[in-house]
Design brief:
Layout (H helix, E strand, L loop, with lengths): L3 E2 L5 H8 L11 H6 L7 E5 L2 E6 L7 E2 L3 E2 L3 H14 L5 E6 H10 L4 E5 L5 E5 H6 L6 H13 L2 E5 L5 H11 L5 H15 L7 E7 L2 E12 L2 E9 L6 H13 L5 E3 L7 H8 L5 E3 L1 E6 L5
Parallel strand pairs: 12-13
Antiparallel strand pairs: 1-2, 2-3, 3-4, 3-5, 6-15, 7-15, 8-13, 8-14, 9-10, 10-11, 11-12
Helix pairs in contact: 6-9, 7-8
Length: 295
Amino acid sequence: MNFTPIELSHKDKINYYLKAQIIESSELTFTTMYIWRNAFNFAFAEVDDCLIIKAQDNGFPPSLRCPLGSGDKKSAVEKACKHFLKIGEKPRFYGITENMAEALGELFADKFIIREMEDYSDYVYKSERLINLSGKKLHSKRNHLNTFKNNYKHEYSKITTADSKDIINAYDKWFSSDDMYLLSERGSIIDILNNYDKLDLVGGKLTANGEICAFTMGEQLNENTAVVHIEKANTDVKGAYAAINQMYVQNEWSHIENINREEDCGIEGLRKAKQSYYPDFMIKKYKATLKDEIL
């Protein structure tokens, strides 16, 4: 089994397999894999008309994703496990959704230890709530939004390829971090903006007093759900995050029922931010580790 590092040129190939089934997890999009391809060394292999994704966080053992596509998934899992055993690695599948965990259990009864990955559940919200911010729970969000509207002359607009340079220049003025993952994400954001016309993203930008203060990018995940991949704002502009969140959904996704805002990865600040919008439900994810060396 030969794994090929994911590049932009593989978008159509990977989307071919993704479109063969209903995708619920924010991780199972080409954009996610592309953004984090360097930090997690994403690679793919084709086997039995299925796509197998491999990932390896620096310093951690490699992991697989459940087979995608319409082919023989049982055979694909068997071959992926045998490949891992051959190279001396324990077969492990990460980021498995509930329906994938159930299917794995049915195909390989009692062969895998399946455990929930609590830090990687996706936060999902009703788009109507993110737009209207109604109710006591979202009172503070309404205040942040109103603070932004009242204090700044502002304009929301959809991102086009012509905006890429201006957004990158604005982002670089705000960005300050030596965190390896954020640095990797920064590089990918720039890469995405430079290749915006080649991707299927819907992006929005926000200006405050004539200067870009926030931008965001997402895409349709399935029939009922859109996923937000990137959301960045200048924290010196009061209410900018609340404003780009609300205006983006209102302008681009009001026709879609649910908004998936991805996971928190166990990062406390990110967790508080996502919980502060009170998700309507979570997309739980699991890891499955082969018990023995024989399927």
